[in-house]
Amino acid sequence: MKGILWVARVQLVTALRERETLFWFVIFPVFILALLASVVGSIGKEGEMNFDLTLVNLAKPSSASVDFAAIVERAFEETGKPPAPGKQPLFTLHRPAPGEDSQAFLVREEKALRIGRRAVVVVLPEGFNEGILGRAGGAAAGPSGSTGGRVLVYYTKGSDASEIAASIVEQVLAGVDQRILAESGRFQTAASVPTETRWVGVGATEIAYVDFLLPGVILMGFFLSGLFGVPGSVLFARDRKILQRYWVTPLEVRQYLAGFSLGHLGLCVCQFFLLLVIGRYAFGAKVLFAELVPVLFLVLSAVTFLAFGFFIAAVVRTANAGMALANLLNMPMLFLSGLFFPVRGLPLVLKAIVYANPMSYLVEGLRTSLGVGAREFPLEVTFGVPLLWIAVCTVVASRRLQWDVGR
Amino acid sequence: MQDASSILMRVTGLEKHYGAVRAVDGISFSVPRASVFTILGPNGAGKTTTLEILEGIREPDRGEIEVFGAKLRRVTRAVKERMGVLLQDANFEPYLRVKEVIALFASFFRRAVSVDEILTRVALQDKAKAMVRTLSGGQRQRLAVAVALINDPELVFLDEPTTGLDPQARRNMWSIVAGLKERGKTIILTTHYMEEAEALSDHICIMDLGKIIAEGSPRQLAAGLGRETIVEFVADHLDPGDVDNLKTFGQGARTDGEVVTLQTNDLVGTMEGLLAWSRERGIPLANMAVRQPNLEDVFLALTGRRLRE
Amino acid sequence: MKAFLALVRAEAVLLLRDRIALLLIFLFPLVFILIFGFLMGGRGGPQSARIGVALASGTDSGALEAVLEGAASLRVTHYALSSALEEAVAKRDVDFGLVWAGEKLVFLYDPSRVQENFAFQQLAQGIATDFNLRRQSVSPLLAAEKIDLGKKAAANSFSLLVPGILAFAVLSAGLFAVSGHLTAMKERKILDRLLVTPMRPVHLLAAIVVVRLAVVYVSTLITLFVSMTVFRVSFDVDWPRYTLFVAASTLGMMGFGTLIALVVRRSSSAGYLANILGMVMMFLSGIYFPIEMMPSVLRAVSRALPLTYMAEGMRYTTGVAEISGLRFWVVTAVFFGMAAVLLPVLARYVMVPERR
Which residues lie closer than 8 Å to C256 by C-beta, 6 or more apart? Predict the structure, then answer.
């Protein structure tokens, strides 16, 4: 027993002192958490985005009535102001200087749009005001596309920024449209149908991205330490005959394994707490792991990847080969599991990998039990597949794992 | 005739094959208690394999081992409790501190001396907190010795304990071995250094190609040659005729490159003949040495090859 | 010259025999492409979002149907029950959902789709506005006409992603290839043995650079080929500029790798640093998220990253996006400049015998 505890302690201590393990299993997951939480979590937020928009007003104000083009222009000017002090305005407006030739300006701006310096170019053509009046004058509700005040929205397809900006422009225009209609009495704003936003799968609140992310990163940490750390450690110790020193003592192989596993699980515990603390205090994560089912999934995950690590150590001959195999399996298993991206619409081969991958179930199970994900598999399957993996890996490893530098 | 309880370990008919290669080809020997028993032989003789079988990390194909009064097919846990092993070129976890390594190994045994005591014994007490990766080669070897002795074993295996060490470290190791023997420990040692075998051993087994080709105390082995004196000199350009001539001056004349070796019981007669021959043929007797036969000579006589290749 | 060619040959043979290194160089971008290609395949977004609707028949549902049909960028799927729709949204069979039971428009979103929901909410707003107008039989006065000025090759998000991934592969290969290889040689004392010969260190460096450059170039070609055949993405590659740019950026990144090799001693540590830098750059360089959607601080960081410009250049030379010609030449020149300045530094300071 003493021996087992000491082996466990040695395993944990060595992992924390060795630069490689410290980096990949402790620093790297923290880094990913921080990077994704701060970058992805802040994407697409109001007050943070900013697109370059060109606005050219070629419309001639019609003498008799309202200058609708000016109304539209003013609406866009609003978007050019920051929503709150210190925040970014949605659009940075580019308009021709007073006295500048609008057509020449427009040609330049279209070129700028093509080379990505502008997200969208909005043009109010010459006959804009007439068009509006014409519409207002008589035509009943008809299919869209009939003459009205045409606004030209130039964008580049395939550029996310441009497409999003164009989409926003459409909404701005729709808003102006509604205001004009309301002011002219044609449209009863009060009679509008209310809209409601609902978040699916978790109840009424929008989950913060970091709550979605944190469980995934924790599992990624367990995965990396199992996939790389276990074979690396075992094979290194075997190849350098560190293990041989143990075998000349009364220590038995199974005692060594028990100690090793214990130490490894200790490492997982360290990873977990570090990520939890950083996730909660640096990024405001609210997920609570303090319930039975999430804890069960955490333990199940740690053990699954530990067993998998032994499996890898058992099927290769040298430490280098072990690391190469781990590198090869690393990305497919991480990405084809729903950890970072949803796995939709995959061809059969890849789908098979997703279904075979224990990570898919562990991720889904953990997230669902924490209330930050949608259930995809029945609970028996979510527990069952990883357990099956553990069984298979253990059997293979116990049969094939060479504890001696073969001779 | 030695009484049974004074034999600590007896090996009978030990065999180990790797395919067609017979690494250990049926060897038997007895190790008396509180002695230094050396297995001497060139690289590839099967010494390490033999030792590994006795240490319990290799399975023999055939043979019996009797140790601590029990007859076994292979070495058990109970036996390992009373054994200490110094492995050849094995390593420690680089990121452990010296005292952690000792404590780790101590935890494997039911009985162990204190960490401080063993560190003092191998003169590593100032390095107790140092990490293994910062230790020099000699310090690592001392750590290995500490680990081998942590359980105060009755039987100690030392596999090539001074290979790769500088002369000072070698001398330190020799004094450790002497100290162990003084305290009543039994030591089984392998080496390919003749001086080491001569200096330390009570009993030597010479192994070659998996078999024991001679055994006895260093003195007995040398005496087994049956010759009192060895005469050596360097001469180049000798014809086969010359070599035959030389044989008349002593027994077992041999040339090994430029070195000519003669064995004789009649030193004066041999010298007279050699000097005359040298003058007659005009071949100078360069680097001439007259000495006692040593294990190198024994091995050469038995196998026609040198101990160190 | 003879020595140089001999070194090139030796390096080439060594690299071709190092299966593991080869695997990583060629497989790495391919795996990325394959995974992301399939994952992105069904990706919604402004260009064609999938909406699921559960409409209770009766009041105004006809008008709502008309609105949905009229929206060019929506693919509509009908669900009988709102519970089924909720499940579909959660499982991402559709991008967002709409439930209409006569009282209010309820839009359903999957909260984990952080960066995409903004776009879907825009679309939802458009539907609501349109619907409200139709209910009152009012037709809109304004009509936005979207005109695409982009290049034809940019058929979808994926075709923009591929050049980004190529840029990333070039970055990794470049950053680590030379500095990592050299530090590994140093560790294994191979470098020392070479340096005591009359061989000039510059020749060795040049040999390593040339061989790896060739390998990286070929790997980008393979990746392009796979994208084109497996995912039917079409590119309009300007081969001279493409080749020039790949060469420039690879060399530039090799030079940049020098800085890492100078700062870091062990080859494994150099690997970590390269990895981290690579990851940071990958997320912040506009390959996955448009820069415009990032907070201003990150946008500034993005403009300082070489990968941003590499991705831009790759998009340009593969014909999926435009940049100004001047910009292309300036960026290319800067990369060549980096190589010209930093690689000799590598020769001088890294290729020295190991101090004992």
Answer: C174, C175, C306, C338, C342
Q: Is residue B51 part of a domain?
A: yes
Burial of B264 (0-12, 13-18, 19+ CB in 10 A): buried
State how far residue C132 is from chain A, nearest Cα, in angstroms. 6
Q: Does the beta-carbon distance from C279 to A35 stay under 8 Å?
A: yes
> CB pairs below 8 Å between A and B: how many?
71
Question: What chain C residue is nearest to A51 in terms of C-alpha separation?
Answer: C292
Angstrom distance (rounded) from CA C338 to CA C315: 21
| Per-residue pLDDT tens digits for A308-327 | 999 999 998 888 788 878 88
- Are B95 and A7 an interchain contact pair (Cβ–Cβ within 8 Å)? no
Does residue B121 share a domain with residue B267? no
CB contact under 8 A, A247 and B83: no
C114 has pLDDT over 70: no
Q: Which of A386, A383, A326 has the alpha carbon at shortest distance from A358?
A: A386
**B103 and A CB contact within 8 Å:** yes
Enumerate residues 323 to 352 of chain A having a beta carbon within 8 A of any beta carbon in chain C. Answer: 324, 327-328, 331-332, 335-336, 341-347, 350
Q: How would you label B115-135 residue by residue, b for 16+ Cβ within 10 Å and e otherwise?
A: beebbebbebeebeeebbeeb
Tokens encoding C342: 């930093």
Range of the domain at C171: 2-41+156-350
Contacts of C1 (CB under 8 A, 6+ apart): none
Q: Do chains C and A touch (3 or more CB pairs under 8 A)?
A: yes
C76 and C167 part of one domain: no
Dist. CA B74–CA B67, nearest whole Å: 10
Would the ipTM clear 0.85, i.e. be above it?
A: no
Express each pLDDT in C203-231 by its tens digit: 888 888 888 899 889 989 988 888 888 77
- Are the Cβ atoms of A332 and C150 closer than 8 angstroms? no
Q: Which chains touch A (3 or more CB pairs under 8 A)?
A: B, C
Domain boundaries, position B196:
4-222
Interchain CB distance below 8 Å, B90 and A246:
no
pTM as predicted: 0.79
Give Cβ neighbours of residue A368 (< 8 Å, ≥ 6 apart): A374, A375, A382
pLDDT band at A115 (very low <50, low <70, confident <90, very high): confident
What domains are there in chain A, each with its CATH number?
2-41+207-400 (no CATH), 45-191 (3.40.1710)
